[in-house]
């Protein structure tokens, strides 16, 4: 069997019969087949040797010798050659794949199963095939063996696996923005928790964020600080994507001004920066004591994540650009900016 359509029909709950036998080996007048069943606990079946009187006769699965009629000291030997063993192995592998992906489904169901030996990789299907390999859930032993056999290929697959993971995160961000309903700080799916878990979206120059509560920082401080690869730190204030950032200035047609919510966020960040400046040495000592490495909290850069600029025109985007330039050390980012950064990071790795 090469690329097969395997039909399975349930007999009772959790147990099903495979409609067609797997042919293990075949000659003009005899053949060896595997009649299989699948159940929730695995695979079972019968290996059957069939014979016929002429080429025109059909194979009759009902005519079988009952081995229970054997007398004492009598045996039945079935010769199974190498090719037949391979076909049996392929049959079991395909049925195992059906069980893993679909389980035992009710009724009659047909599944397309591809024999690995018959797969032809082309430019058109290679991405799909590679993604299937990456998402197959192979154990660490498999990846270790691949690394030993072909280090370059293993490295490329590792990058591809990481890229696939990043693409899922970017797609999840896009979906979150479209569906809405997520809170700023409350709950396991809050924006604050999600952003800190996926902080790579801000760029490759950051390591894992450090929680304020783990380094005994007191006062008006952000929940997390972002260590940079150059040894300095940045901070982030998170607001909702539904918050407005800019409002039209009615007194100056064509002009824009920061909303009340954006101004409040800027005020909070200024307080954070002031407290960090005041407690710089203490915080640096606490980080070294807790994590064993040195950071410098001199003049952190601050980001405010707020609003969604997906539907902004160029005039509004230019207005935010000018305001960010005037803020000196504080930059307002929108969630669309974060989405764009994620997509750009993935494109650069292609």
Shape: elongated
Radius of gyration: 32 Å
Q: N-to-C terminal Cα separation, in Å?
A: 37 Å
Give the topology string: H per helix, E per strand.
EEEEEHEHHHHEEEEEHHEHEH
Mean pLDDT: 84
Largest sheet: 6 strands, antiparallel
- Strand pairing plus helix content: what structural class? alpha+beta
* Total E-strand runs: 13
Task: Work out the helicity level.
Answer: 25-40%
Oligomerization: single chain
| β-sheet strand percentage | 15-25%
Low-confidence stretches: none
Number of helices: 9
Walkthrough of the structure:
The protein has 350 residues and is α+β, with helices and mostly antiparallel strands. It has nine helices and 13 strands. It has helices at residues 82-102, 126-134, 140-149, 151-179, 191-197, 260-278, 280-291, 314-327, 335-348; strands spanning 4-12, 15-18, 22-26, 30-39, 42-51, 108-113, 210-211, 224-227, 232-238, 246-248, 256-258, 296-305, 330-333. The strands form three sheets. Strands 1, 2, 3, 4, 5 and 6 form a six-stranded antiparallel beta sheet that branches. The protein has a five-stranded mixed beta sheet with strand order 7-8-9-12-13. β12, α8 (314-327) and β13 form a beta-alpha-beta unit. The model has no long low-confidence stretch (mean pLDDT 84).
Key features?
13 strands, five-stranded mixed beta sheet, six-stranded antiparallel beta sheet, 350 residues, alpha+beta
In terms of topology, how is this protein built?
Elements: E1 4-12, E2 15-18, E3 22-26, E4 30-39, E5 42-51, H1 82-102, E6 108-113, H2 126-134, H3 140-149, H4 151-179, H5 191-197, E7 210-211, E8 224-227, E9 232-238, E10 246-248, E11 256-258, H6 260-278, H7 280-291, E12 296-305, H8 314-327, E13 330-333, H9 335-348
Parallel strand pairs: 9-12, 12-13
Antiparallel strand pairs: 1-2, 1-6, 2-4, 3-4, 4-5, 7-8, 8-9, 10-11
Helix pairs in contact: 3-4, 4-9
């Amino acid at each position: 069997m090469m690329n097969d359509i395997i039909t399975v029909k349930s007999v009772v709950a959790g147990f099903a019969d495979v409609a067609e036998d797997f042919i293990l080996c075949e000659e003009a007048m005899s053949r060896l087949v595997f009649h299989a069943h699948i159940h929730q606990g695995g695979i079972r079946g019968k290996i059957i040797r069939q014979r016929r009187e002429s080429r025109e006769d059909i194979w009759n699965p009902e005519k079988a010798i009952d081995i229970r009629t054997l007398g004492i000291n009598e045996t039945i030997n079935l010769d199974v050659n190498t090719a037949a063993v391979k076909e049996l192995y392929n049959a079991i592998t395909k049925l195992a794949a059906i069980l893993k992906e679909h389980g035992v489904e009710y009724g009659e169901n047909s599944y397309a199963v591809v024999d690995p030996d018959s797969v032809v990789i082309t430019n058109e299907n290679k991405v799909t095939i590679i993604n299937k390999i990456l998402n197959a859930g192979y154990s660490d032993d498999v990846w270790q063996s691949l690394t030993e056999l072909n280090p370059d290929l293993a490295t490329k697959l590792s990058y591809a696996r990481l890229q696939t993971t990043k693409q899922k995160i970017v797609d999840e961000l896009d979906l979150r923005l479209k569906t809405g309903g997520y809170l700023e700080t409350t709950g396991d799916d809050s924006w604050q928790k999600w952003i800190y878990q996926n902080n790579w979206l801000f760029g490759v120059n950051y390591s894992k964020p450090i929680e304020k509560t783990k380094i005994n920082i007191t006062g008006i401080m952000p929940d997390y600080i972002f260590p940079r690869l150059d040894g300095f730190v940045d901070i982030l204030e998170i607001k909702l994507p539904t918050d407005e950032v800019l409002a039209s200035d009615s007194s100056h047609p064509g002009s824009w001004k920061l909303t009340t919510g954006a101004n409040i966020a800027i005020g909070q960040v200024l307080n954070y920066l002031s407290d960090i400046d005041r407690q710089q040495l203490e915080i640096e000592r606490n980080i070294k004591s807790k994590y064993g490495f040195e950071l410098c909290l001199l003049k952190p850069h601050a980001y405010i994540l707020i609003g969604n600029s997906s539907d902004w025109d160029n005039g509004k985007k230019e207005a935010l650009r000018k305001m960010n330039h005037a803020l000196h050390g504080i930059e307002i980012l929108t969630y669309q900016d974060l989405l764009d950064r994620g997509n750009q990071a993935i494109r650069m790795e292609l």
